[in-house]
Amino acid sequence: MNDVTEPVSETLAERAKLALGRRNLVFIGLMGAGKSAIGRLTAQALGIPFVDSDHEIERVSRMTVSDLFATYGEEEFRALEARVLKRLLRSGPRVVSTGGGAYINERSRRHIKKGGLTVWLNADLNVLWERVNKRDTRPLLKTENPKQTLENLMRARYPIYAEADLTVLSRDVKKETMVEEVLAAIADHQKAQKP
Ligand SMILES: Nc1ncnc2c1ncn2[C@@H]1O[C@H](COP(=O)(O)OP(=O)(O)O)[C@@H](O)[C@H]1O
Ligand SMILES: O=C(O)C1=C[C@@H](OP(=O)(O)O)[C@@H](O)[C@H](O)C1
Ligand SMILES: [Mg+2]
User: Fold this and answer.
1) From ligand 1's centre to the CA of 7, what distance in Å?
2) Is residue 67 within a helix (H) or strand (E), and if so which, with residue range?
3) Which residue ranges make up each domain of the chain?
4) Which residues bind substrate (predicted)?
């Protein structure tokens, strides 16, 4: 009898899941990059839990992010965000989408680097602007010239986001395409690590 077993063909999602192991996958990047939307879909594809740190902050504080900024200020928000991220990243695997400022905060960045594989959704100004100007839920953009504010944030933050383990270019393609590129980046990263 022929004893040779067929090689199991693995889907991209399976390969990415294997490569991720017990680590968390953490989405970072500027407002409008797609962290919340693409993070959720990536978790679905991987078959692991998803959590958005802003939603978790809103759940535990019973306030919206906007109200937290208005009532307690950004510094208090960052302290709460760091505590929430520390707890969310303690065990894995899960997908964690962060708010745009999380990785910029030193304490949060430490928890993120320790707790997971980071993927930066890198987008250009016009892509971000087209997405964020449709909603007014982002307190940092309630300025006289929000597009200029976004550009200033890009300049200040992109060198720090660039420390991410993986970078995927966020642009106007189907969300499913973005998810595939994220999965491929995880699988390829694992390959690159092997001797
Ligand atoms: N690839 C994409 N193509 C079109 N729209 C997108 C894409 N990725 C995200 N979006 C949309 O852009 C908006 C901002 O995305 P969101 O996930 O909230 O960004 P973030 O959490 O990074 O601020 C949402 O309305 C989302 O559905
Ligand atoms: O960039 C930032 O500092 C922020 C981004 C927001 O999240 P998204 O990046 O998901 O919009 C939210 O955490 C808060 O408004 C502050
Ligand atoms: Mg978000």
Assistant:
1) 38
2) helix 65-88
3) 35-193
4) 54, 78, 100, 157
Percent of residues in the chain assigned helix, strand, coil, to nearest 5: 60, 10, 30
Q: Give the atom of ligand 1 at the shortest distance from the alpha carbon of 37.
A: 17
Asked if residue 99 has its Cβ within 6 Å of ligand 1, the reply is no
CB 166 within 8 A of CB 189: yes
pTM of the model: 0.95
Question: For the structural domain made of 35-193, what CATH number should be given?
Answer: 3.40.50.300
> Which residues have any ligand 2 atom within 6 Å of their CB?
31, 35-36, 54, 65, 99-101, 138-140
Give the whole-angstrom CA distance, residue 103 versus residue 31: 12
Task: For residue range 147-194, list pLDDT tens digits in order.
Answer: 999 999 999 999 999 999 999 999 999 999 999 999 999 999 977 766
Known binding residue 32? Answer is: yes
Spatial strand order of the sheet with 24-28 comes to 50-52, 95-97, 24-28, 116-122, 166-169
The question of ipTM being above 0.95 is answered as: yes
Cα of 8 from ligand 2 centre, angstroms? 42
Query: How many Å lie between the centroid of ligand 1 and the Cα of residue 52?
Result: 13
